[in-house]
Amino acid sequence: MVSLTCFSCRESLEDRCERECEIFTKKQCPLEIGDTQVVDSMAFERSSHTIYYYNTVSGALDNEELIQEKKPIIDKELKNLVINTMSLKVYRENGYNISYVYYSKSTGKKIYSLIVGPHD
Question: Which overall architecture, per CATH, does domain 11-116 show?
Fold first, then answer.
C-alpha cells in the first residue's frame, strides 16, 4: 500500500502566506501598473501578521505633496481594494494586516504607506 501525504494540508497559514508572497515576487515582479507605478515586491512579516506590497511611483505620481493631498482618497481606494480582493479574503478573516508602501522613483524616499487591519 502506498501512503500519500498531503503536505499542503499541514502547511500553516503563516507558511502559506510567506510562500505566496515569495512566489508572487519571483514570478510577477516587477509588475508595471500603468505608466506610473511598479509593484516591486510582496513580503510577509510573521510577527505582526502583515502582508506588504512595496511599490515605486514615477512620473505624475512621483509627487509627495500631491500624494499627501489625495491621501484620504487613496486610503479609501486601497481599503476597498483589500476588501474586494478574493485572494486576500482568508488572510483578512484570520486577522492579518495588508500594507501598501510607496516609494518615489526620483528620490527613493517613502512617500506613502497604509496598513489595512482586520477591522477596517
Answer: 2-Layer Sandwich (3.30)
What span, in angstroms and rounded, lies between the C-alpha atoms of 92 and 82? 8
List the one residue out of 87, 57, 75, 70 whose CA is nearest residue 117: 75
> What distances in angstroms separate CA 63 from CA 20, 41, 58, one per listed residue?
31, 21, 8
Q: Where are the beta strands (DSSP E) in the chain?
A: 31-33, 37-45, 50-57, 97-104, 110-116
Sorted by where each begins, the domain ranges of the chain are: 11-116
pLDDT tens digits, residue range 45-76?
A: 999 999 999 999 999 999 999 999 999 999 99
Q: 60: part of which helix (H) or strand (E)?
A: none
Grid cell, residue 69, equals 493631498
| Exposed / middle / buried, residue 20 (Cβ in 10 Å: 0-12, 13-18, 19+) | middle
Q: What's the pTM value of the predicted model, to 2 decimals?
A: 0.89
